[in-house]
Amino acid sequence: PYGEEVDENGCTKSQIDLDTDLDGVLDINDKCLDTKPGLEVDEFGCNESQLDDDQDGVSNELDRCPETPLNAEVNEDGCSTEQLDQDSDNDGVLNEDDFCPNTEEGALVDPRGCPYKPPTIYGNEFETLEFSNITSFDNKSQEFQEIALGKIIGFDNNPPLDSGDDSITYSVISGADSSFFAVKGDLLYLTRPTDFEEKNKLKVEVKATNSRGVSSSALFILKVLDIPNTYTFSKFSLAVFDVDSETSGSKVDHKRYYYPNVNKGVGKWKIKKKISGGKDAALFKIGTSGDMNKRRNGESEDFLEFIYPPDFEDPKDHNKDNIYEVEVININTEDGDSNVPVVVTQTQLVVPEGNATAIQLQTVAASPLDDTDGDGIADIFDNSPLKSNPDQSDSDGDGVGDVTDDADHDGVWNPFDKCAETPFGSLVDNSGCVIFYLPPTNFSLSKTEKCKDTNSINLTVEDTSLTYNINVTGAIITNETLTSGSWTINNLSQGNYSICVTVDGIDPNEFERCFDVLINDPEELSVYSTANKSNESVTYQLSGGKSYSIIHNGISKQTTESEYTLYLEKGVNNISISTGLSCQGVFEQSYFNSETIVCAPNPFNEMIAIYIGGKELNASIELFTSDGKKLLSEEYTLTENKRTVYINTSSLISGSYVVKVLNASVNESQIVIKE
User: Fold this and answer.
1) Cα–Cα distance for residue pair 374/180, rounded to 1 Å
2) 530: buried, middle or exposed (CB in 10 Å: 19+, 13-18, 0-12)?
């Protein structure tokens, strides 16, 4: 409070009285009022050194037997005589001699009861060049030999065994990059070839175990140093053109840019391609275009692909003009090889919308002095490295020599193209001239198999602007013309038919599409039934149809299964099964599923009671002798609650009789005996 005198700690006498030992706990709550300054205390103002949980007079801090029974006499270590003869932490050392009384279960301990210390192992970082199977001086291939990276440094922190053994053994811990490493003695080895381009830093954890079986580990790092690789860049420009029918798709694809018979460098090298730049780089990837993953010569068959197929009406290129720009780097992954990847395909492309794959990226190996086509121009500078062109003519300036250029992008090189300026997307012959084409999706053929001589074949076409000539051969021979979108031939018998379609005005040698159709007459309907009286059902095994119509007491159900179970109603069950084709036949069957009757007593004497199940309100009861003579035939009225009929049998002589009960849901007979 203001005006009161304070000590050097800023406390008044009244404040000191409230917390005498200044431990932050007021005296009124403080169970340890003499705590030394600076010690950490619990909520009751006590430091661990002041607590005595087992109340034996020895603080927890000094108590080697923390769970002494109450009022037991203890020594200066807080242990009773009984406790000294025990091993509280089960480490094999009696409490009397145990200097570490709370050792964890299973820990290896020394004679004083204290755990052995793990060995110390120092992690390290090594360096090595990536592996190259080509030597720097003779360009010959070589096999990988394991490399000793360095010595593992470690020491034991415990006295030697009585035998004097203080050795440490080292081993590789599985995980991370452990498959690259091995330990022999105290040396760490690299056992597999490394590749800087795949991974430039490897990590492995090594375990050190001392002679007492206690272990520790440390991390070792191997930095992989690069051996320079040769590489080239190729810049691609891809113009996207509109496709008339996006449903049918384009008539042409990336295969028209394929450079045939590229065999140079077989078995010597592998090229890795990556997207390296270009204004539209983010829209492309290097793919494998389906199942064509690797050529036999080892070069990865990489394809330049759009991540999403381009849409002419919705361009995504940087300036929305449907011309995409991307750069690819071609890297010779054979470290130390002097051969340079040379691109042999076109780089100025025209691609149809909707097609993701633009071109197969083809390259050849070329040393600085190679001149494969013998035209005096080194391959690495030649604009057509595999086709002689001494003058290096390139009329359109696209970087590809005229001898292997394809100006109209139809798949035929200029020197062999007899029809220049072919419209984009046209299908051409070997001379580069447009040929007639219809996509496979233009035609859709189906058949309908009914009864004998009533089958049919139907053909639909997408392009209805053409006149089609249809030739049918087989069980019948006919020629017909189609000028609309659909054609059908009816009343066909079983057999093989060939349907060949040509287009009016187009030479059949240029276009003809044929289909083979097999017509089968349907099998007869086959039905096998199995009744199950216990659950009042019938199971049918069905064959001969694709679907079946089952009518049960006027209610129709459909199934395509070959097995069908039907649950019977009480009384008459009329069942009809068909396939919808009358020529396959109809299965019909009736079942009577009777309600229960009970005759009691049986044997009887002067009177017999007959219980009649169900809900019918009348019943006919007949009584016959054992030889079939009718003794009684009466109609009886029933109610929902009174369904028992009593019949006076005093006039009957002893013997056996038959009781028969009939109504809409009962048709049962039982044998009864008169005493």
Assistant:
1) 46
2) exposed
The answer on 205 and 127 residing in a single domain is: yes
pTM equals 0.50
Residue 365 burial by Cβ neighbours in a 10 Å radius (0-12, 13-18, 19+)? buried
Q: Both 323 and 302 in a single domain?
A: yes
Nearest to 404 by CA among 391, 417, 387, 419: 387
Cβ neighbours for 93, distance < 8 A, ≥ 6 positions apart: 87, 109, 111, 112, 113
Q: Which domain holds residue 636?
A: 597-674
| Residues contacting residue 661 through CB under 8 Å, at least 6 positions apart | 597, 610, 612, 619, 620, 621, 667, 668, 669
Sheet order of strands, 303-306 included = 284-287, 303-306, 357-360
Q: Has residue 565 been placed in a domain?
A: yes
Pairing relation of β-strands 125-129 and 215-225? parallel
Express each pLDDT in 299-325 by its tens digit: 456 899 999 999 999 999 999 999 999
3-state secondary structure of 83: helix
And the tokens for 195?
């590749």
pLDDT of residue 20: 78
> In 449-519, where do the E strands start and end?
455-461, 468-474, 478-482, 486-492, 495-503, 513-519
**Final residue belonging to a domain, choices 202, 225, 248:** 225
Structural domains of the chain, count: 5
Average pLDDT, the chain: 87
Mean pLDDT across 45-65: 80
pLDDT band at 297 (very low <50, low <70, confident <90, very high): very low
State the residue for tokens 């010690």: 39
Q: Is the peptide bond before 193 cis (omega within 30 degrees of 0)?
A: no
Please give the pLDDT value at position 84.
67
Reduce the DSSP state of residue 374 to 3 states and report it.
coil
User: Is 74 among the domain residues?
Assistant: no
pLDDT (tens digit, 9 = 90+) per residue, 510-557?
899 999 999 988 888 999 999 998 889 999 999 988 899 999 999 999
The sign of the dihedral angle between the CA atoms of 369, 374, 380, 381 is positive
